[in-house]
Structure formats: C-alpha cells, structure tokens
Design brief:
Elements (H helix, E strand, L loop, with lengths): L6 H9 L2 H14 L1 H15 L1 H8 L3 H7 L8 H10 L13
Helix pairs in contact: 1-3, 2-3
C-alpha cells in the first residue's frame, strides 16, 4: 500500500524549487494582493522562516507579520525575501484582451 503525504509536505517540497515557487507566486499575483501575500508566506515557510530571517537580515517575527494577510511588506523587504529564495521581479506587458 502506498503511503500518502500530507498536502503541506508536498507544497513545501514543491515550493523549494525556484521554478515552481515562481509559477505559484505569478498565479497568486494575478488573483490579488491578499492571495499574493499568502502565497509568499507559503514560499517563505517552505524555505524556513528562521533560515530566511538569517539570510535576509530581517527578524523572524517581522517576516511572519509582513507576510500575514494584513501585512504590507516594504519593497526592500520583498526584494530581500525574493533574492534569498532565488527569485526576481520581472515586468511584462499585459496580454491583450
């Protein structure tokens, strides 16, 4: 009998891959700010908040707060988080309707 993994374990493992994390964040960004912050929290959690705090120079508690649904990360903090997990921000034209 095959052992089933918990969804969170699968998500964490997937989001450690920069391509998967980038696709996940892009899809969330299209849905809006609240969804994007939850997705960014998921990606950060997959990489480990303590590890992320050390690599970004941000406080662990501050990471949790800024990545909450009511969070409002500054550009500098967002950039530090993305740099730490191997992602960058890219702008592209919207698709024509």
């Amino acid at each position: 009998m095959r052992k089933l993994r918990k969804f969170q374990e699968y998500l964490d493992e997937s989001l450690k891959n920069p391509i998967e994390a980038g696709n996940y964040l892009n899809a969330a960004y299209e849905e809006g700010e609240d969804v994007f912050l939850v997705a960014l929290h998921d990606v950060a959690q997959a990489h480990g908040m303590t590890t992320l705090a050390k690599s970004t120079g941000l406080q662990r508690e501050g990471l949790y707060k800024m990545l909450s649904k009511k969070g409002n990360p500054e550009y500098r903090s967002l950039r530090a988080i993305l740099d730490s997990i191997g992602l960058s921000i890219e702008f592209r034209p919207k698709k024509a309707a």
